Amino acid sequence: MTQSTLESGRRVFDQQIDRLQRGFRGHLGLAATNLSTGEKVLVNADESFPTASVIKVSVLAELFAQAEEGRLQLGERLEMLPSDIVGGSGVLKELLPGLQPTLEDLAMLMVVLSDNTATNMLIDRVGGVETINGRIQGEYGLKTIALHNRVDFEKIGPDVRRFAEATPTDLMRFMERLARGELVSPQASLGMLRIMSRQQYLDQVPRYLKVNPFARELNETPEVGVACKTGFFPGTRVDAGVLTLPGDVKVAYCAVANAAPDTSMAPEAEPAIVQGLLGRLLVDYWWPRSDGSSGTLSTPYAATYGLQADG
């Protein structure tokens, strides 16, 4: 592919991102990097956005770091007390106190189901909010990633920023280090990616991608692999993770659709749709095959924002 062709493709891509921004009634943030080429896509990437539950990856990193240091074991069991139970997303709130899940069980629940009870149990076990922020901001140098509180809806109220904030750039850098095996250790990075690859909320960036959450059970290899953590709040959707395209091309990303007047939590809420269109644009742009194949799905929502309709 010639340099002029590459430049032309980037211009078209940038135009589509601009159309999506102008059509969205909220505020977009995006930071993505192709680990094979080093190319980046940055849209309001150094602005601080609410992270919603994506901040839980910082809890995950602290857990694996302390396991690496021998301060705890992932197989250790914690008893769920009545005082641990908190509402919102997750399944533990529906179960009776007295369960004794392992720390790794809690990490899986925290990530794949965004379980708030599991999250608070892990925050407490690793030493609290200040411990988590101290490592991710200090040792890892991701200074904008900040967890402000445990999951406490009285403190958070209507402003999800009171829970946690970060720039898309720093969350992308977190995912890039994870994909390169450079977060905590190569083994720990693989362990965290393994948990994130079991994500059950795939309605944001992977929404219009040819992913298959049941590929393992069906002994299939999906055309697009994803390991991610999502977050959701009225008017806000956040998604950060690693996409794997054919040829082991990896894309680290963080996408945010914030301040939308559509504050519904419905599957078709505008910020969720826009997140899916962002993911679709990224994969179409960085798709490594030239054989006419595609890693994306068609959607009528593309035309709503002036984008190409076919995947």
Structural class: alpha+beta
- Output the strand order for the largest sheet: 2-1-8-7-6
Shape call: globular
What's the end-to-end separation, in Å?
21 Å
Question: What Rg, in angstroms, do the CA atoms define?
Answer: 19 Å
- Helix count equals 11
Tell me the series of helices and strands, N- to C-terminal: HEEEHHHHEHEHHHEEEHH
E-strand count: 8
Helix content: 25-40%
Q: Unreliable stretches, pLDDT < 50, 5 or more residues?
A: none
Averaged pLDDT: 95
What kind of sheet is the major sheet?
5 strands, antiparallel
Commentary on this structure:
The protein has helices spanning 3-23, 56-68, 103-112, 116-126, 129-139, 153-156, 168-179, 186-196, 215-218, 270-286, 301-304, and strands spanning 27-34, 40-43, 49-50, 146-147, 164-166, 225-233, 236-245, 249-258. By secondary structure, it is of the alpha+beta class. The strands form two sheets. Strands 2-1-8-7-6 form a five-stranded antiparallel beta sheet. The chain has a three-stranded antiparallel beta sheet with strand order 3-5-4. Helix 2 packs antiparallel against helix 3 (103-112) and helix 2 (56-68) packs across helix 4 (116-126). The longest helix is centred in the first third of the chain and has 21 residues, at 3-23. The two termini are 21 Å apart. The mean pLDDT is 95.
